[in-house]
Amino acid sequence: MIAVVVTSASSLPVIWHEAYEVDIGPHVFPTTKYRLVRDRLLAEGTIEIRDILRPEPAADDAVALVHTTEYVQKMKTGALTLEEQLVLEVPFSPALREAALLCAGGSILAGRLALERGIAVHLGGGFHHAFPDHGEGFCLINDVAIAVRALAQEGAIRRAVVIDCDVHHGNGTAAIFARDPTVFTFSIHQEHNYPAWKPPSDLDVGLEDGTGDAEYLGVLETHVPSIVARHRPDLACYLAGADPYEQDQLGGLGLTLEGLRRRDELVFELLGRAGVPVAVALAGGYARRLADTVEIHCGTVRAAKRQLLN
Ligand SMILES: [Zn+2]
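Above: query sequence and zinc ion SMILES. Below: predicted holo C-alpha coordinates.
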Protein backbone atom coordinates (compact mmCIF):
# COMPACT_ATOMS: atom_id res chain seq x y z
CA MET A 1 0.00 0.00 0.00
CA ILE A 2 1.35 3.45 -0.85
CA ALA A 3 1.25 6.47 1.40
CA VAL A 4 -1.18 9.10 0.26
CA VAL A 5 -0.55 12.77 0.83
CA VAL A 6 -3.08 15.18 -0.54
CA THR A 7 -1.92 18.70 -0.01
CA SER A 8 -5.02 20.82 -0.32
CA ALA A 9 -8.60 20.33 0.85
CA SER A 10 -9.87 21.90 -2.39
CA SER A 11 -7.83 19.63 -4.66
CA LEU A 12 -9.50 16.74 -6.42
CA PRO A 13 -7.61 13.44 -6.06
CA VAL A 14 -6.87 12.12 -9.54
CA ILE A 15 -5.21 8.81 -10.30
CA TRP A 16 -3.27 8.21 -13.50
CA HIS A 17 -0.30 6.26 -14.82
CA GLU A 18 1.61 6.75 -18.06
CA ALA A 19 1.63 2.98 -18.61
CA TYR A 20 -2.14 3.09 -19.31
CA GLU A 21 -1.17 4.14 -22.81
CA VAL A 22 -0.51 0.68 -24.24
CA ASP A 23 0.44 0.28 -27.90
CA ILE A 24 -2.32 -1.93 -29.30
CA GLY A 25 -1.72 -1.01 -32.94
CA PRO A 26 -4.43 0.53 -35.12
CA HIS A 27 -7.58 0.10 -33.02
CA VAL A 28 -10.87 1.81 -32.22
CA PHE A 29 -9.83 1.95 -28.54
CA PRO A 30 -7.69 5.10 -28.18
CA THR A 31 -5.33 4.32 -25.31
CA THR A 32 -3.83 7.79 -25.86
CA LYS A 33 -6.96 9.30 -24.33
CA TYR A 34 -5.73 8.86 -20.76
CA ARG A 35 -2.68 11.06 -21.33
CA LEU A 36 -4.65 13.55 -23.41
CA VAL A 37 -7.26 13.91 -20.67
CA ARG A 38 -4.57 14.40 -18.04
CA ASP A 39 -2.69 16.96 -20.15
CA ARG A 40 -5.82 18.94 -20.92
CA LEU A 41 -6.92 19.04 -17.27
CA LEU A 42 -3.49 20.28 -16.25
CA ALA A 43 -3.37 22.87 -19.05
CA GLU A 44 -6.74 24.34 -18.18
CA GLY A 45 -6.03 24.32 -14.43
CA THR A 46 -8.76 21.88 -13.37
CA ILE A 47 -6.04 19.82 -11.69
CA GLU A 48 -2.46 20.44 -10.67
CA ILE A 49 0.50 18.07 -10.84
CA ARG A 50 0.33 17.55 -7.07
CA ASP A 51 -3.27 16.26 -7.39
CA ILE A 52 -2.14 13.33 -9.55
CA LEU A 53 -1.33 10.07 -7.80
CA ARG A 54 0.36 7.14 -9.46
CA PRO A 55 -1.00 3.74 -8.49
CA GLU A 56 0.89 0.59 -7.67
CA PRO A 57 -0.14 -2.60 -9.49
CA ALA A 58 -2.90 -4.48 -7.68
CA ALA A 59 -1.46 -7.26 -5.53
CA ASP A 60 -2.06 -10.88 -6.47
CA ASP A 61 -4.34 -11.45 -3.50
CA ALA A 62 -6.52 -8.47 -4.52
CA VAL A 63 -6.85 -9.78 -8.08
CA ALA A 64 -7.68 -13.20 -6.65
CA LEU A 65 -10.72 -11.73 -4.88
CA VAL A 66 -12.37 -11.55 -8.31
CA HIS A 67 -10.46 -13.68 -10.80
CA THR A 68 -9.82 -17.42 -10.87
CA THR A 69 -6.37 -18.82 -10.16
CA GLU A 70 -6.34 -20.47 -13.56
CA TYR A 71 -7.07 -17.23 -15.41
CA VAL A 72 -4.50 -15.25 -13.40
CA GLN A 73 -1.92 -17.89 -14.24
CA LYS A 74 -2.79 -17.68 -17.94
CA MET A 75 -2.31 -13.91 -17.84
CA LYS A 76 1.00 -14.23 -16.04
CA THR A 77 2.39 -16.66 -18.59
CA GLY A 78 0.66 -15.12 -21.60
CA ALA A 79 -0.93 -18.50 -22.29
CA LEU A 80 -4.25 -17.17 -23.56
CA THR A 81 -5.72 -19.34 -26.29
CA LEU A 82 -6.47 -17.89 -29.71
CA GLU A 83 -10.17 -17.94 -28.88
CA GLU A 84 -9.55 -16.10 -25.60
CA GLN A 85 -7.57 -13.45 -27.47
CA LEU A 86 -10.33 -13.04 -30.03
CA VAL A 87 -12.90 -12.53 -27.29
CA LEU A 88 -10.59 -9.99 -25.62
CA GLU A 89 -10.57 -7.97 -28.86
CA VAL A 90 -7.24 -6.30 -28.06
CA PRO A 91 -3.84 -7.91 -28.61
CA PHE A 92 -2.52 -9.42 -25.40
CA SER A 93 0.97 -8.33 -24.36
CA PRO A 94 2.95 -8.02 -21.14
CA ALA A 95 2.40 -4.23 -21.40
CA LEU A 96 -1.37 -4.77 -21.54
CA ARG A 97 -1.17 -6.99 -18.44
CA GLU A 98 0.92 -4.40 -16.58
CA ALA A 99 -1.51 -1.65 -17.52
CA ALA A 100 -4.46 -3.75 -16.34
CA LEU A 101 -2.81 -4.47 -12.97
CA LEU A 102 -1.89 -0.79 -12.51
CA CYS A 103 -5.43 0.11 -13.43
CA ALA A 104 -6.86 -2.24 -10.80
CA GLY A 105 -4.46 -0.66 -8.29
CA GLY A 106 -5.69 2.72 -9.50
CA SER A 107 -9.31 1.86 -8.88
CA ILE A 108 -8.48 0.58 -5.38
CA LEU A 109 -6.69 3.88 -4.73
CA ALA A 110 -9.61 5.88 -6.14
CA GLY A 111 -11.98 4.06 -3.81
CA ARG A 112 -9.77 4.67 -0.80
CA LEU A 113 -9.39 8.37 -1.63
CA ALA A 114 -13.11 8.74 -2.27
CA LEU A 115 -13.75 7.43 1.24
CA GLU A 116 -11.32 10.03 2.63
CA ARG A 117 -12.26 13.00 0.47
CA GLY A 118 -15.81 12.30 -0.75
CA ILE A 119 -14.85 12.04 -4.39
CA ALA A 120 -11.87 10.79 -6.41
CA VAL A 121 -11.37 10.30 -10.12
CA HIS A 122 -9.43 7.54 -11.80
CA LEU A 123 -8.26 8.69 -15.23
CA GLY A 124 -8.53 5.10 -16.36
CA GLY A 125 -10.42 1.95 -15.48
CA GLY A 126 -14.00 0.82 -15.84
CA PHE A 127 -13.10 -2.48 -17.54
CA HIS A 128 -16.52 -3.90 -16.85
CA HIS A 129 -16.57 -6.69 -19.47
CA ALA A 130 -13.97 -8.81 -17.63
CA PHE A 131 -15.34 -11.97 -15.98
CA PRO A 132 -13.69 -14.02 -13.21
CA ASP A 133 -12.32 -16.58 -15.65
CA HIS A 134 -11.81 -14.58 -18.84
CA GLY A 135 -11.43 -11.14 -20.33
CA GLU A 136 -13.49 -9.73 -23.17
CA GLY A 137 -14.35 -6.53 -25.00
CA PHE A 138 -10.98 -4.74 -24.39
CA CYS A 139 -11.16 -5.68 -20.67
CA LEU A 140 -8.48 -8.00 -19.26
CA ILE A 141 -9.38 -7.75 -15.57
CA ASN A 142 -12.28 -6.04 -13.83
CA ASP A 143 -10.59 -3.17 -11.97
CA VAL A 144 -13.74 -1.80 -10.32
CA ALA A 145 -14.83 -5.21 -9.04
CA ILE A 146 -11.32 -5.79 -7.66
CA ALA A 147 -11.45 -2.40 -5.93
CA VAL A 148 -14.82 -3.11 -4.33
CA ARG A 149 -13.70 -6.52 -3.09
CA ALA A 150 -10.31 -5.26 -1.88
CA LEU A 151 -11.84 -2.38 0.08
CA ALA A 152 -14.40 -4.72 1.62
CA GLN A 153 -11.67 -7.20 2.50
CA GLU A 154 -9.66 -4.56 4.36
CA GLY A 155 -12.80 -3.43 6.20
CA ALA A 156 -12.95 0.02 4.58
CA ILE A 157 -16.47 -0.62 3.24
CA ARG A 158 -19.26 -3.05 3.82
CA ARG A 159 -21.65 -2.17 1.01
CA ALA A 160 -21.15 -0.67 -2.42
CA VAL A 161 -23.09 0.30 -5.52
CA VAL A 162 -21.81 0.28 -9.07
CA ILE A 163 -23.44 2.89 -11.28
CA ASP A 164 -22.46 1.90 -14.78
CA CYS A 165 -23.24 4.57 -17.36
CA ASP A 166 -21.08 3.15 -20.15
CA VAL A 167 -23.19 2.62 -23.29
CA HIS A 168 -22.45 -1.12 -23.09
CA HIS A 169 -23.98 -3.39 -20.49
CA GLY A 170 -21.70 -4.17 -17.53
CA ASN A 171 -21.81 -7.91 -18.10
CA GLY A 172 -18.66 -8.89 -16.22
CA THR A 173 -19.51 -6.79 -13.19
CA ALA A 174 -23.06 -8.15 -13.13
CA ALA A 175 -21.78 -11.74 -13.20
CA ILE A 176 -19.13 -11.14 -10.53
CA PHE A 177 -21.59 -9.67 -8.01
CA ALA A 178 -24.65 -11.73 -9.01
CA ARG A 179 -24.74 -13.59 -5.70
CA ASP A 180 -23.23 -10.86 -3.54
CA PRO A 181 -25.92 -8.97 -1.62
CA THR A 182 -23.41 -6.38 -0.40
CA VAL A 183 -22.89 -4.95 -3.90
CA PHE A 184 -25.74 -3.46 -5.93
CA THR A 185 -25.04 -3.30 -9.66
CA PHE A 186 -26.90 -0.83 -11.87
CA SER A 187 -26.31 -0.67 -15.61
CA ILE A 188 -27.91 1.88 -17.94
CA HIS A 189 -26.96 0.99 -21.50
CA GLN A 190 -28.09 0.56 -25.09
CA GLU A 191 -30.10 -2.65 -25.19
CA HIS A 192 -29.29 -3.64 -28.79
CA ASN A 193 -25.53 -3.47 -28.57
CA TYR A 194 -22.57 -5.47 -27.30
CA PRO A 195 -22.52 -7.66 -25.25
CA ALA A 196 -25.01 -10.06 -26.80
CA TRP A 197 -25.40 -11.97 -23.52
CA LYS A 198 -26.24 -9.67 -20.66
CA PRO A 199 -26.26 -11.49 -17.33
CA PRO A 200 -28.63 -9.54 -15.10
CA SER A 201 -27.37 -6.70 -12.93
CA ASP A 202 -29.41 -5.91 -9.82
CA LEU A 203 -31.02 -3.26 -12.03
CA ASP A 204 -30.66 -3.06 -15.79
CA VAL A 205 -32.14 -0.29 -17.89
CA GLY A 206 -31.66 -1.18 -21.54
CA LEU A 207 -32.41 1.85 -23.71
CA GLU A 208 -33.66 1.91 -27.30
CA ASP A 209 -31.34 3.01 -30.09
CA GLY A 210 -31.04 6.77 -30.35
CA THR A 211 -32.34 7.55 -26.84
CA GLY A 212 -31.59 11.20 -26.11
CA ASP A 213 -30.61 13.40 -23.20
CA ALA A 214 -33.99 13.95 -21.55
CA GLU A 215 -35.02 10.31 -21.34
CA TYR A 216 -31.55 9.22 -20.20
CA LEU A 217 -31.36 11.81 -17.44
CA GLY A 218 -34.90 10.94 -16.40
CA VAL A 219 -33.89 7.30 -15.87
CA LEU A 220 -31.02 8.35 -13.60
CA GLU A 221 -33.25 10.72 -11.65
CA THR A 222 -35.80 7.96 -11.17
CA HIS A 223 -33.48 5.17 -10.12
CA VAL A 224 -30.30 6.46 -8.49
CA PRO A 225 -31.96 7.98 -5.38
CA SER A 226 -34.00 4.85 -4.67
CA ILE A 227 -31.02 2.52 -5.23
CA VAL A 228 -28.98 4.52 -2.74
CA ALA A 229 -31.83 4.80 -0.24
CA ARG A 230 -32.51 1.07 -0.31
CA HIS A 231 -28.97 -0.26 -0.49
CA ARG A 232 -27.27 2.30 1.82
CA PRO A 233 -23.80 1.96 0.26
CA ASP A 234 -20.56 3.11 1.88
CA LEU A 235 -19.14 3.77 -1.59
CA ALA A 236 -20.41 4.31 -5.13
CA CYS A 237 -18.29 3.38 -8.13
CA TYR A 238 -19.36 5.48 -11.08
CA LEU A 239 -18.40 4.31 -14.57
CA ALA A 240 -18.65 7.54 -16.51
CA GLY A 241 -18.39 6.07 -20.01
CA ALA A 242 -18.11 8.62 -22.80
CA ASP A 243 -19.68 6.23 -25.29
CA PRO A 244 -23.40 7.09 -24.84
CA TYR A 245 -22.41 10.10 -27.01
CA GLU A 246 -24.34 10.48 -30.27
CA GLN A 247 -21.09 10.47 -32.28
CA ASP A 248 -19.63 7.32 -30.74
CA GLN A 249 -18.43 4.64 -33.15
CA LEU A 250 -19.38 1.76 -30.84
CA GLY A 251 -22.51 3.29 -29.36
CA GLY A 252 -25.98 3.96 -30.69
CA LEU A 253 -27.52 6.27 -28.12
CA GLY A 254 -28.16 9.94 -28.84
CA LEU A 255 -26.65 11.88 -25.95
CA THR A 256 -25.13 15.28 -26.72
CA LEU A 257 -22.01 16.75 -25.16
CA GLU A 258 -24.26 18.93 -23.02
CA GLY A 259 -26.36 15.91 -22.03
CA LEU A 260 -23.26 14.05 -20.89
CA ARG A 261 -22.17 17.06 -18.82
CA ARG A 262 -25.58 17.11 -17.19
CA ARG A 263 -25.40 13.34 -16.61
CA ASP A 264 -22.17 13.68 -14.64
CA GLU A 265 -23.51 16.60 -12.61
CA LEU A 266 -26.70 14.71 -11.88
CA VAL A 267 -24.92 11.56 -10.71
CA PHE A 268 -22.61 13.56 -8.44
CA GLU A 269 -25.49 15.65 -7.12
CA LEU A 270 -27.71 12.65 -6.35
CA LEU A 271 -24.89 10.76 -4.62
CA GLY A 272 -23.67 13.88 -2.84
CA ARG A 273 -27.15 14.62 -1.53
CA ALA A 274 -27.25 11.10 -0.09
CA GLY A 275 -23.77 11.50 1.42
CA VAL A 276 -22.29 8.63 -0.58
CA PRO A 277 -18.58 8.89 -1.51
CA VAL A 278 -17.94 8.31 -5.19
CA ALA A 279 -14.99 6.81 -7.01
CA VAL A 280 -15.09 7.58 -10.73
CA ALA A 281 -13.66 5.46 -13.54
CA LEU A 282 -13.60 6.71 -17.14
CA ALA A 283 -14.70 3.49 -18.92
CA GLY A 284 -15.35 3.54 -22.69
CA GLY A 285 -15.27 6.31 -25.29
CA TYR A 286 -14.81 5.88 -29.05
CA ALA A 287 -16.07 9.10 -30.60
CA ARG A 288 -15.35 9.69 -34.29
CA ARG A 289 -13.30 12.68 -33.16
CA LEU A 290 -10.89 11.73 -30.35
CA ALA A 291 -11.15 15.34 -29.15
CA ASP A 292 -14.81 14.72 -28.28
CA THR A 293 -13.96 11.68 -26.15
CA VAL A 294 -11.31 13.73 -24.36
CA GLU A 295 -13.77 16.59 -23.85
CA ILE A 296 -16.43 14.27 -22.38
CA HIS A 297 -13.96 12.70 -19.93
CA CYS A 298 -12.61 16.16 -18.96
CA GLY A 299 -16.20 17.25 -18.39
CA THR A 300 -16.61 14.42 -15.89
CA VAL A 301 -13.55 15.58 -13.98
CA ARG A 302 -14.69 19.23 -14.01
CA ALA A 303 -18.07 18.16 -12.63
CA ALA A 304 -16.33 16.12 -9.92
CA LYS A 305 -14.28 19.13 -8.94
CA ARG A 306 -17.34 21.39 -8.74
CA GLN A 307 -19.00 18.76 -6.56
CA LEU A 308 -15.97 18.68 -4.27
CA LEU A 309 -15.98 22.46 -3.91
CA ASN A 310 -19.73 22.60 -3.21
ZN1 LIG B 1 -18.47 0.89 -23.58
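The mean pLDDT is 96.
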